[in-house]
Design a protein that fits this description.
The complex is a heterotrimer of chains A (280), B (273) and C (242).
Chain A: H1 2-5, H2 14-44, H3 51-58, H4 61-101, H5 108-123, H6 126-139, H7 149-175, H8 178-186, H9 191-206, H10 208-221, H11 233-244, H12 248-279
Chain B: H1 2-22, E1 36-40, H2 60-72, E2 79-83, H3 86-90, E3 99-100, H4 108-113, E4 114-116, E5 121-123, E6 125-130, H5 131-135, H6 142-146, E7 150-153, H7 158-166, E8 173-175, H8 178-186, E9 192-196, H9 197-207, E10 211-217, E11 226-228, E12 231-233, H10 238-252, H11 254-262
Parallel strand pairs in B: 1-2, 1-3, 7-8, 7-9
Antiparallel strand pairs in B: 4-12, 5-11, 6-9, 6-10
Chain C: E1 4-13, E2 16-26, E3 31-35, H1 42-49, E4 57-62, E5 65-66, H2 74-80, E6 81-84, H3 96-108, H4 112-125, H5 141-153, E7 159-163, H6 171-187, E8 190-194, H7 198-204, E9 207-212, E10 215-220, H8 222-225, H9 232-241
Parallel strand pairs in C: 3-8, 3-9, 6-7, 7-8
Antiparallel strand pairs in C: 1-2, 1-4, 4-5, 9-10
The chains are: A mainly alpha (280), B alpha/beta (273), C alpha/beta (242).
């Protein structure tokens, strides 16, 4: 009896020793299987008959070195477009989400507008919106610089992404229990104040992880602006590809993108995990 | 019935004799024995291919292809046309065509990945703009061109030539294809764009309502004049036969005649000093 | 004049009639306990008094004026009637103090500095002095419910409604919340409680109403209704809960 609870020579209980053994074993299995898969890739892929040609086309170190600085510079344009679009999306999407939530019959047209808006912009491919707004609106005869593809291309991204983000906000608003609204109303707060001080702060916090994923998607879709002129990283890579007849510049662009999106994705996952822990 | 069979076999025999006369070179080197497969863009444009129907042999590239094929001993239904995109064409790996012509400029780097035939056309680069830009004082001098807002098709050698020949004050905007470049011109987002001369002629005549060709940089003005070559898979043994056929057409004056017929308009655009 | 008079209150949710003509008079400073089985209409009655659920028919007179008139803006009326819920319903993104300050700041345009002394006094009075800067999830159920009461009191309501406010609490935490109610009664607050705490009702209530199927079946002094009910069904209910 006494032996069951007493500590062993190492100062650990039987259970602690057992768990340590299990952990050591699973680390060993995970490590060796990862190494095995990597070795297989490194050893087997070069054995494929077309490997030399693929390597020359996609993984040319000389091309990598030569194009990297220019591509990194072009990436700054992506970052800039992202930086001015993201806050505008956050605001406009909130406006749409709130319109969608109005309950007064007098404001029904607003609600209808928000519904149509989200349906339309979620249903149309982003690239079509980019073309339509990026070429279409300036084509109406706007003077420079107001016909700039940067302005209208960004607007296309903002309009489209706001539709998605508005739906995320809405799911957040709807996830706030009616009892929270009741508590606020019972204190005598107006509907607007209830929304502003009680519902929205909780709803927005709750959808941060989902919105992080939208931000990552936006960062990639910024490249669609290249269709209407701006020379951002993917367009610059395309130019290099044409000049050098080599796909390595695309690989460079992908590497630069991953350097941003992988940490961002990990961070979003971290936020989701944290939120799940808090709720459980 | 018998009469038709007679004509058919007579035609076959006649065809067979011409094939045997020059056809030894390509024997066993084509995708399909006895047939020569050409690829072009989808769609293919005037003046390279008329009505997007290359098999008719009308339009500059369609006519060149037909003449080259005939020179190599392929005629009628033994000349097959397929379509292939740009990326698809310069990727490593097996091709679904013997020869691809869609205004591929021959460059050293591209030549590492694929094979090019001897050039069948040396293109001048031309500046396409719109009447309002000309009315605003743009003219065919480098100094004037520098101040314009430029655009170009990102997949063409127009991009480095733009930087090399003009060196615009502001960064050029780049597009996926000619249609998008023209759309940006219509939206007044760019003033001018650089195309090879035949494309510029087509766009000015057909697509861009108030389009004007401001001038051209003749092939000899630039260090590497843009030359169009037929694209083949790297190491394709057919290259020798294609080169031989093109050189024969050049020597006989046939190539110049085709160019005069289909790219006649290529004259009469001012040269940029 | 009575503080609150309810006349013929009716309320249905679809085909389900929840309140079937309630009449009730509450005098100033009185504590009224509503008892009855779940679904008898106690909570709905409290919610209609606070105008959270609009009534289908009937009148509610507060100080003699009908507040159930559908033409009226419910907002200023709700400010005069405090309400506390079974599930506390504190705002989880605010500290206890911010929860309490929200309504006075937004509605009465008062500043934090201005409000702080009187709110700190309320926290002090209900044994929450060291909990002002805590978030709801850092507080026990009893503490959260007391903060919720303070939050309602901060608007200086004329009448307070309590909807089964001890039902979600662990038994050992019930006492501290009931103490608050006793203190409020001593202060002269007019209160209506929906409750299952029969012991508390017997000891503290001025009047007890037994609700069944959306009607007040029996009402009177606690010693009468609870110890000596007239109605058979009241007796049956009490024998189940006592």
């Amino acid at each position: 009896m006494a032996d069951n609870t007493s500590q062993t020579a190492s100062g650990l209980t039987r259970r602690q020793l057992h768990e340590r053994r299990v952990q050591r074993r699973s680390l060993l299995v995970a490590g060796s299987s990862t190494v095995a898969v990597l070795l297989a890739l490194i050893l087997l892929v070069p054995l494929a008959p077309g490997w030399e040609r693929v390597k020359a086309s996609f993984f040319d170190w000389e091309v990598f070195r030569q194009t990297f600085p220019t591509l990194l510079e072009a990436f700054l344009l992506d970052v800039a477009i992202f930086a001015w679009c993201a806050p505008l999306i956050a605001i406009w999407a909130l406006v749409i989400a709130i319109c969608r939530d109005v309950r007064s019959p007098a404001l029904y047209p607003l609600r209808l507008f928000a519904m149509l808006y989200t349906d339309i912009f979620r249903g149309v491919p982003v690239i079509l919106v980019v073309y339509l707004i990026g070429f279409g609106i300036p084509g109406l005869g706007l003077p420079r610089p107001w016909n700039s593809p940067y302005i209208w291309g960004s607007l296309a991204l903002i309009l489209t992404y706001s539709a998605y983000v508005a739906e995320i906000y809405r799911s957040g608003i709807e996830s706030i229990h009616q009892s929270q609204r009741n508590a606020a109303l019972s204190l005598g707060l107006s509907n607007a104040d209830t929304m502003r001080y009680v519902v929205l702060p909780q709803a927005i916090r709750r959808v941060v992880p989902a919105n992080m994923n939208m931000l990552i998607a936006l960062q990639k879709d910024v490249a669609l602006l290249s269709f209407i002129g701006p020379v951002e990283i993917f367009r610059q890579a395309g130019v290099f590809k044409s000049l050098l007849a080599n796909f390595t510049p695309y690989v460079v662009a992908a590497v630069i993108f991953l350097a941003i999106t992988i940490p961002a994705t990990r961070f979003a996952d971290h936020l989701i995990a944290k939120q799940n822990r808090q709720r459980s | 019935m018998t009469i038709r069979m007679f004509f058919a076999s007579a035609a076959l025999m006649a065809f067979a004799t011409t094939t045997y006369a020059d056809g030894h070179c390509a024997a066993g080197k084509t995708l399909t024995e006895g047939k020569l497969t050409f690829a072009t863009g989808n769609p293919a444009y005037y003046p390279w291919v008329i009505d997007d129907a290359p098999e008719k042999g009308e339009g500059f590239e369609a006519a060149v292809a037909k003449a080259v094929a005939a020179e190599m001993g392929f005629e009628g239904e033994n000349v097959v046309w397929v379509r292939a995109g740009f990326d698809e064409s310069i990727q490593p790996g097996a091709k679904n065509f013997d020869v691809n012509l869609q205004q591929f400029s021959i460059t050293e780097d591209r030549d590492k990945v694929v094979d090019f035939s001897a050039p069948y056309y040396s293109s001048a680069m031309a500046v396409l703009t719109r009447q309002p830009v000309v009315d605003n004082g743009a003219n065919a001098t480098v100094a004037s061109l520098k101040g314009l807002k430029w655009g170009a098709d990102a997949n063409t050698t127009a991009v480095p030539m733009l930087t090399g020949l003009i060196g615009p004050d502001s960064d050029p905007l780049l597009y996926n294809d000619n249609v998008d470049v023209i759309e940006a011109m219509k939206a007044n987002q760019i003033d001018a764009a650089m195309f090879d001369l035949p494309t510029a002629l087509y766009l000015a005549a057909v697509t861009l309502e108030d389009g004007v060709i401001l001038g051209q940089f003749p092939a000899e003005r630039s260090q590497n004049p843009d030359q169009f070559g037929m694209l083949m898979e790297e190491g394709n043994p057919l290259k020798a036969c294609v080169d031989e056929a093109i050189e024969a057409l050049r020597a006989s004056g046939e190539l110049a005649k085709i160019e005069a017929t289909w790219l006649y308009e290529a004259t009469g655009v001012p040269v940029i000093e | 004049m009575p503080k609150l008079v309810l006349q013929n209150i009716r309320k249905s949710f679809g085909a389900n009639a929840v309140l079937n003509g309630i009449d009730l008079t509450v005098e100033d400073g009185e504590m009224v306990c509503l008892i009855g089985a779940s679904g008898s209409g106690k909570s709905t009655l409290l919610r209609t008094i606070n105008l959270l659920d609009p009534l289908d028919d009937g009148e509610i007179f507060l100080d003699g004026a009908d507040i159930a008139d559908p033409e009226l803006d419910p907002q200023p009326i709700r400010q005069r009637i405090g309400m506390v819920f079974q599930s506390y319903n504190l705002f989880p993104h605010m500290t206890a103090e911010e929860n309490v300050m929200l309504a006075p700041r937004r509605i009465k345009n008062r500043t934090r500095e201005d409000l702080h002394p009187e709110i700190a006094a309320l926290f002090e009075k209900f044994g929450l002095a060291d909990r002002m800067q805590h978030y709801p999830d850092q507080l026990s159920g009893g503490q959260q419910q007391r903060v919720a009461i303070v939050r309602a009191l901060a608007m200086r309501p004329e009448i307070m409604l309590f909807d089964e406010i001890t039902s979600a609490l662990d038994p050992e935490l019930v006492g501290e919340v009931l103490d608050v109610l006793r203190a409020l009664k001593a202060q002269g607050m007019t209160m209506i409680l929906a409750t299952h705490e029969m012991q508390f009702a017997r000891e503290a209530a001025d009047k007890v109403c037994f609700l069944e199927a959306g009607r007040i079946l029996e009402e009177g002094a606690p010693q009468d209704v609870l110890a000596n009910p007239r109605e058979e069904r009241t007796r049956a209910f009490l024998s189940r809960v006592l």
